[in-house]
Amino acid sequence: MKGFLLTSILTAVSVLACSPGPVRQEWRQLSSGQQQAYLNAINQLNQRQDDTSNDSTDPATWSFAHFAIVHARYQQANHNQGSVQAPPFFAWHRIFLHYYEKALQSIDSSVVLPYWDWTQDSQNPLSSDVYAQLGGNGQGASGCMETNPLNGWSSAVNGGCLKRCSGAGQTLYPAGAVVSLMNGSPNYAALNRQIQDGPHGAVHNVIGGRCADGGVGDMYTMSSAGDPIFYMHHAMVDKIWMMWQDACPSKFANDYSAAVNSVMAPFTQTAQDVLNFKASDGNFCYGYSSSGINSVQLNKCAGAPGTPTQSGDSAAPSATAPADSVDQYFAELRLLDLIPNSADILKALFPGFSNSNINTISHFMHSPASKAKAKRDYLSYGNFTSVPDVIPTYQLNPGYKIKAPCQNDTTDLYNLRHPTPLDKDYIKMMNVDEKSARHVEYLAKLAVDDMNNMEGYVPYSALINFNAHNKLGLFKPKQSN
Ligand SMILES: *[C@@H]1O[C@H](CO)[C@@H](O)[C@H](O)[C@H]1NC(C)=O
Ligand SMILES: *[C@@H]1O[C@H](CO)[C@@H](O)[C@H](O)[C@H]1NC(C)=O
Ligand SMILES: *[C@@H]1O[C@H](CO)[C@@H](O)[C@H](O)[C@H]1NC(C)=O
């Protein structure tokens, strides 16, 4: 049983048309040797020197500083600016990450870019092992990085030290909220707007943060690619795009909202080259491992994105979820089955838990009757095509009992917190369209409320799972044999 679950969950990958290719793993799925190899490679890339003014050189030969500078130099074309959509966002960053990976491979050919599934840590990101192993928070009023592996790194774009002033008690988007936004995106333009201005921006806003001396962390600015955590964050963003493309390839694999043959300077590729990975450059052939976000079912073509449209509703759940989806929906519980010593953890967390019901964890945590309610999570609130003129004022649905706990309350292990809204300063600095960002935040709150109000449902992103797979350091895939 467990062997079957192992193969079905941990080797499940998201790949588009080509295969086989390297599989990018979540940081916690790497062995400690692989983690060390990655950290060594970024350290060497940081010591490399090249002509950062010449973007015509082979990007695989660039220095770390050159990547940071290029990201800032081309930012206007590749990020949403106010109400102006920048369609290249996903595609340009896919190319950028590809060359960053190539540059690392020129140092150590065994390295494959890892990603950070921050949905797993969304409820308490500063306690994440991933964050800690990538250097944790900056020191003092100015937030300079003084811990390894980033001790003494400088900021090529902003000058001075590399900074993080990550805010305590802040939260990111949980898996269910991200998937709800994906389900509500009927085309590339919608996905671009919702993911870029919502969950993507939240990671920059929270991890960069505002420093006591009035400055901000690099992730908060267009100097963000000077912080190595940027690349693992954007690999997650790329995975989200790929998951969405894979959810309905006939509609989404080639969907794009601008001229698909425009070259993505300073690179030579076009969006077309990286959309479905079978086009001209065979190097763009890779996949992503399954991680926490995969525990929430993404609508397939049958229940196409946007099918249920509701806002702040108490209406009946949609009946469009495919028949087997409820079981897939509960894949997260099976992940718990994979954790060594899970019985001990569960006994500590749930008084009354005994060895005799170790094989029925899902029954222990979820009565079968609650599964019907869990279907609610298939709802997407957007069917997003444009930002409404007036963003509705958020209020808890009167039919709901459970309010999201405060962001800084880490005692509630089960209920999800609303994601921390983007700072006004971040919005201004990044020239984000505030209305668009607030709209996404509103939709995310509705999705979080829904999850919290499913009777007996414990979301994958809940702190109880966080404790199991992160804090206790036990979330390691077993080697298949
Ligand atoms: C920039 O790099 C390209 C490719 O290596 C080279 O042909 C060109 O001469 C360089 N330009 C400058 C100004 O150094
Ligand atoms: C979602 O939006 C699209 C585009 O405007 C529209 O064609 C479709 O009917 C909408 N779906 C629902 C369920 O409202
Ligand atoms: C926790 O959050 C609440 C409201 O969200 C705030 O009033 C309180 O001061 C916060 N406590 C700490 C220690 O930050």
TrEMBL record:
PROSITE patterns reported for this sequence: PROKAR_LIPOPROTEIN (PS51257), TYROSINASE_2 (PS00498)
N-terminal signal peptide: 1-25
Domain Tyrosinase copper-binding: 227-238
InterPro entries: Di-copper_centre_dom_sf, Tyrosinase/Hemocyanin, Tyrosinase_Cu-bd
Alphabetic keyword roster: Copper, Metal-binding, Signal
GO MF, one annotated term: metal ion binding
Protein's name in the database: Tyrosinase copper-binding domain-containing protein
Source species: Boothiomyces macroporosus
